[in-house]
Amino acid sequence: MQNMGIEVLFKGINSLRLWQGLWVTIRIALISMVFSIILGFLLGMVMNIPNKIIKFICRIYLEIVRIMPQLVLLFLVYFGAAKHLGMNLSGETAAVIVFTFWGTAEMGDLVRSALISIPKHQYDSGYGLGLNKWQVYLYIILPQTIRRLLPSAVNLLTRMIKTTSLVALIGVVEVLKVGKQIIDASRYTNPTAALWVYGAVFFMYFIICFPFSRLSRVLEKKFAD
Amino acid sequence: MKKKILAVLLATGVAATTLLGGSILVSAADDGGNTAQARTLDEIKKDGKIKIGVFSDKNPFGYVDENGDVQGYDIYFGKRLAKDLLGSEDDAEFTYVEAASRVEYLQSAKVDVILANFTVTDDRAEKVDFALPYMKVALGVVSPDDALIKDVKDLEGKKLIVVKGTTAETYFTDNYPDIELVKFDEYQEAYDALLDGRGDAFSTDNTEVLAWAQQNEGFSVGIESLGDIDTIAPAVQKGNTDLLNAINDEIKSLADEQFFHKDFEETLKPVYGDNINPDDLVVEGGVVDGEEKAEDAAETEDSDAASDDTKEAETTEEPEETEAADAE
To answer: NCBIfam families from the xrefs (chain A) (predicted)?
Structure first.
């Protein structure tokens, strides 16, 4: 009986389909993360501008992202844009938009706090050396910020990878959805398939998230020296 | 003083933004009033592809086989529909939908037709237009072969297993209060209870018990069709009349060749086996005939459903008044 369950994974092109699903997952997460990092850095710097109105607007944006479940955002962008703005986005595009919207807010807040954590004397010493504002940012503040950011940014990325399972609800077939399809297709012929398929999906999530965690630890050590 | 003014300003700002933001969100989340225009039949023909929303994980109605191809009762019909409307089975473009967002897919014009085991209900009929039905479901009762329950009367004084929140629970509570119900939260528990003999029979959707009985020797479905009959029909966006009519005509004309019986043979029979009468599930030509097995309740429900359909087909000129909440 146990053997029968695992057979499902090797039937037809099932394992290939799982890997293809995983690729969709990674693609959405990575593209969104790249955008989030770029925009998040900008947002983090903007958030540190000592201006009440700017701070307030950033705060509102951040709160909206935190309060709204990602699923609601996905539905708003995927269905809402089609209904209200006449924009018929593909599921994957909608997913990237939502995850970037979310990631930018989270990343921005991380960058903001990392920037704040840099002691004031670092700025002062930079100015003392005759560097201008941008040079101080570029050569002194940012390198230190990045080191402090790494663990939380990787944490955000792995969270993003895992949250992509929601995109199945707007018709994007990612790894978990493929898994469910396989389980369902063999529902009558092979009822024990679920354990094996979910096991395989778990393993696949692990092998993409684990290297990222390792990488961040290695980089952290490297930067610490 | 200055601080006070600032505080007041800030508070007003917060209030205004919250209200504004809230109303934007609400209006965006609100399905009512605003609908993306669905493609007409002519536009679909010009494009050469019809977009059909189907399930990808509801075996045997819509599922993806081990080669990555979508299969099932709904898909079999979808391909035929594409062939007759556009000339080739390959002109069907299948989009995988989820149960909760089937209405949304139509309202946002992401698909032209939904063929995803879509049960006709009054609630849904307010938001989408249902075509003629092509399948029906009712309750079934499964029991051990050596003490097979063939009639509801056999259940008197016996223990009937049901799953909480299902139509079976409501039906038996309302119509047969004398039958003792043993209730479980999950299907698996209910089946285990039946296997252990903690109840004499188990009732839920007939498609479900039929498939289960097929897999479990020593058990049969003694009552294949009981209670209110629900119909399953294709759905299009509200107001897409010419497409709706085309689908209705198609369903009517397919009756001559008993197409849905063929569909049953190909897709459902391997799962449900020989023990079941196709007429318990299949609807030909959109006509639900309740005469053979129907309870009185089922009969009235049938005519209701039928008149609903015709009403829908005629009053389709008002597309823009869908309800706010969607069917999640």
So the answer is: HEQRo_perm_3TM
Using a CB-CB cut-off of 8 Å, the residues of chain A touching B98 are 168-169, 171
What SS3 state is found at A223?
helix
Distance (Å, whole) CA B89 – CA B81: 8
Within a 10 A sphere around the Cβ of B27, how many other Cβ atoms? 13
Strand pairing partners for B92? B50
- Say yes or no to pLDDT of A4 above 70: no
Summarised one tens digit per residue, pLDDT across range B85-94 is: 999 999 999 9
- Report d(CA B176, CA B154) in Å as an integer: 12
| Strand, helix or coil for residue A172 | coil
- Is residue A196, in this structure, part of any structural domain at all? yes
Whether A23 maps to a domain, the answer reads yes
H and E: helices and strands count for chain B: 12, 13
Sign of CA pseudo-dihedral B179, B185, B188, B189: negative
Query: What interface predicted TM-score (ipTM) does this complex get?
Result: 0.80
Select the residue from A19, A84, A201 to test the B interface by mutation, using most B Cβ atoms within 10 A.
A84
**Complete DSSP assignment for B189-243:** HHHHHHHHTSSSEEEEEHHHHHHHHHHSTTEEEEEEEEEEEEEE--EEETT-HHH
Contacts of B318 by beta carbon, 8 Å cutoff, 6+ apart? B238, B239
H/E segment holding residue B96? strand B92-96
B231-280 residue pLDDT tens: 999 999 999 999 999 999 999 999 999 999 999 999 998 888 777 788 88
User: What CATH number is attached to the domain comprising A187?
Assistant: 1.10.3720.10
Q: Rounded distance, CA B308 to CA B132, Å? A: 10
In a domain, A93, yes or no: yes
Residue A42 makes CB contacts below 8 A (sequence gap 6+) with A108
Report the domain count for chain A: 1
Q: Is A72 on the interface with B (CB under 8 A)?
A: yes
Q: Is B319's pLDDT higher than 70?
A: no
Residue A157: how many CB atoms within 10 A of its CB? 23
CB pair distance less than 8 Å for B34 and A83: yes
Distance, CA of B27 to CA of B30 (rounded, Å): 5
* Residue A1 within a domain: no
Query: How many beta carbons lie within 10 A of that of residue A214, not counting itself?
Result: 11
Which domain covers residue A177, as residue numbers? Answer: 6-224
Residues of B in contact with A11 (CB under 8 A): 66
CB–CB contacts below 8 A, A to B: 95
Contact between residue B309 and residue B234 where contact means Cβ atoms under 8 Å apart? no
